[in-house]
């Protein structure tokens, strides 16, 4: 006898519903992992894990030689309340078109209950079937119709989820069977109190090896001795502290306390030279930190200086409770000076609607960990509630790009935030499962995931972004929940990141992208405290390379997929940890350059910055050895592999020519690597030429890969180019003399010929580029030499062969908006609403000295200042009223006159926005607007390329007009309303 239950069948198609959504009961989750899984016929390698591993993209097939309709049975050790199934098939070769779901209520093997069926079973879409909850001992999913186009039974299953009521025993059952847990029935309880004599062992004080910390350490030991009946030992090295065997009390910060260094790079702590800052201290507990054994905590008495450590130690003693063996510290999150919000600011944080993203959780959880402000913690928890609701409605939610790229930080922050007492214990299980779903969605986002762990070498960001999340999430779930499958992604992360740490360059040959992968490898290395990348000197090579591929203003040169760079992002990304490790004054100088003169040095403040003169003149960066081997043996995308005829000792990555670190210095970058991820075919191309703050030759393009889009030679043979440019260029010879430098580079076998490029540099004056070709094969060759610059309407071809680009070096206006404003002169104004906003314009002025008055206003104290310069001269600070139009002044309080001594000079020069240092220390700019009736300078930027075979730049020393055109630029740090500028 066959019984039937009321059922609903649903085919879930991304972006649409075939029918109404099934109504699974609240609290019902996937319990397939707790079942004994029996497929018929046998699966390949008898591997049932892919059926229930939470990753539908990783499917499984029946064994070769099987045939017919496949089925899978799920059986449990006790009756289970089950309300539906979700299925996913992956292959168009082995297809199921119809299926039936049957139940066995007694566990006798008689599947007499017909639970549901489906007749719409598309490939790579979820199929959902729901019914009134039934109590079952076993359930069978059976294909009733389909086809095989190969020698196996059908279908190929991607995932089968059994939706039912979870039990506390499910976790243990899944672990025993080696199946991935897709739902944790009950989150582990957390401790929010630290017993100083944990397990009966006396605590230890770990203090810096610095006499200035002795008073704080001594006072702490004396105070604890009175409470405990015995004073704890004071030690200075990590081995003596032995974390994980007893409670450790840490004084200092990551620069002088080895345990705090480890915790800092695992995102448990933030104490350094900048936080909490001079005179401040922090008190908080890191509960059971990775990688030490669980059960013991670290109490942090953090400070940026020794004097504040005494105040922190005294404050800690006041917070301790109990006496003798029961002395304990309750959950504490204290930062002095206070970073708590004002009441209006607190209300604003709490009233804002959480964004539907784990990134919103991470941001506010980090703010809480750095401030102790409860409003941030509540906002972080509210964001988790949103994510729990999203997963209830969309169990297979696709992780968005912002979460993928910050997944490592998301899991690390949750690990540090987990014990927050504001988390409702009744909700903790839901939060843990939301993070579990996020973690389980990451493998399918890892490029080349299956191959990781097999001959690993250099990597790229589409592998390392989600892999870093798998690492931080995997170690959390492995340590706390012992998930059977957590070791696999941890092993893959280890294989990938340790292999990458053997190189200073990843697969990527795109300026911004390469810092991403290297940052991920460095983050992993420091979290695991594997210092081989640092101890080998590769960190120096990497940092020098990043500096070398930026011009003397610190701006990226724009090779590979790269936008038009206007911010020194690469230096700020790559050099901080290089400076931490090396204390190199050149790195500090570059960081100050990139930060506009005042980098908030969180590390070594006793170091005096000095320009890195080793990176001036001619610098050759040979291709990284591991990257060379990869390029010669593996294709990067789908192109045919053709090893380049360049020996490793001649292969070069980049060659930089730099006259000095003056912002107006000459700078030229030559590329030798024509592959890599985010690739451009640009071997032997001049990536960029900069002089007097002007980009004369540029690359700076995205997905524009052809040789004709780069400053290089393109070759047609007999009217065709059916082969790619070779992957590598070689360096035959080079010389770097006091006044001259020279390189001879080559690309062999380039569509039938060899191309040699010779560059002669008269330092500070000019470059001569000579290209020579020699045919290897007979044919008719068409050679096109491209010079690519910005189209400003000042370019021309002279004498049929010379390409002349004439420039005034004023920067174009940017980030502006013209608006109606009845209070402004003429009723119109220009809004400068962003820190990068700039208003540039021309004025007919004879040489001389002028006073300039600006009629404007700022929204508030964070946006009432701006810079003004004429012809690239001195940048003068102007301060304007707040809230209503008024005249500019030399002083913030507006008591001074308008700034004097604006001096136009002969010849054009550059204008750029710089942040007022005093204004920059204030709260960041809120939304607002700025206005002016002045017209922005110049047309929108375009690109001009495919120039003639000769290339010459002409830069006149004076404008040709009798009355010279002067170029003035305005720059400002925040929203500001500008009504008029008067001479």
Structure notes:
With 983 residues, the protein is of the alpha+beta class. The chain is built from 20 helices and 43 strands. The strands form 10 sheets. Strands 1, 2, 3, 4, 5, 6, 7, 8, 9 and 10 form a 10-stranded mixed sheet that branches. It has a 6-stranded mixed sheet with strand order 13-12-14-16-15-18, with helices on both faces. Strands 19-20-21-22-23 form a 5-stranded antiparallel sheet, with no helix packed on it. The longest helix has 21 residues, at 461-481. It starts with a strand and ends with a strand.
Throw out a few tags for this protein.
983 residues; alpha+beta; 10-stranded mixed beta sheet; 6-stranded mixed beta sheet; 23% helix; 26% strand; globular
The major β-sheet equals: 10 strands, mixed
Helix content: 10-25%
Shape designation: globular
What fraction of the residues are assigned to beta strands by DSSP?
25-35%
What are the segments in which pLDDT stays under 50 over at least 5 consecutive residues? Answer: 1-20, 905-983
- Our measurement of the CA-to-CA distance between the termini, rounded to an integer number of angstroms, reads 99 Å
Count the helices. How many?
20
Q: Work out the radius of gyration.
A: 33 Å
Average pLDDT works out at 86
- Broad structural category: alpha+beta
Q: Based on DSSP secondary structure assignment, what is the total number of beta strands?
A: 43
